[in-house]
């Protein structure tokens, strides 16, 4: 529900030290998706890449056709600190909504590829600019019926996003509040599910944000309390990120990445299946719970169906 093929922060394309070989990237992405499909039964891959983070729907189409995995792309921009192109900051709510609706109903540029969801992103606090883009997303949702997938920063402002979606007339069950696992407090997750949205545990394996045993504990708690129908699991991996990091990273972190790379484990898209699901089983989460989270929830989310009745264990 939240993975990436390619990420490029605005400006990375101007770095002469950046090496990028498009056909090698496509080959690696196809290899990863084929592995997911053949070894783990993954048939659909949602890539909510913001427009300005190198979203490349031609590449997505090519990787999808070559791998036999459906790829869902999104319309929508990133958040103010790391995105929001100047030109679009100057646009009004309706102008932004017009772009989103066009990308959903007519296609992205001249590619013929239509967006299947709307991406919304906010910082730790929702800025005035971010609020404007969120309002545009509400208009585009109401015009098209496609769901909204969000980015939150540092596990903050999810409930505030929900309040703004409600004010904009978007039903709670059409929203997936992303990166909620960045917040370790179970009460935070409970607020999101109680308000009726999907909660994204979608940075599984990103150890430098939060440890996975905390993510697994928190998912197990939600499942025990009857909220398995609102949990979305994903890993927020990418097959290629152009250039260097855009936030400061420690030497210890870089060393760990080098180690993982040397083991062929860095950014592995299969980690959810090989490592994390066994951690859930060890905490009493059943295989049927896992299938509900990985199959039923995304299907219901895109179909726009209401949440089933909650049944705590
Ligand atoms: Zn992401």
From TrEMBL:
The modification N6-carboxylysine is found at residue 119. The keyword Metal-binding applies. Keywords: Hydrolase, Metal-binding, Plasmid. Pfam families: PTE (PF02126). InterPro entries: Metal_Hydrolase, Phosphotriesterase. Signal peptide: none annotated. Belongs to the metallo-dependent hydrolases superfamily. Phosphotriesterase family. PANTHER family: PHOSPHOTRIESTERASE-RELATED, PHOSPHOTRIESTERASE-RELATED PROTEIN. This is Phosphotriesterase-related protein. It comes from Sinorhizobium chiapasense.
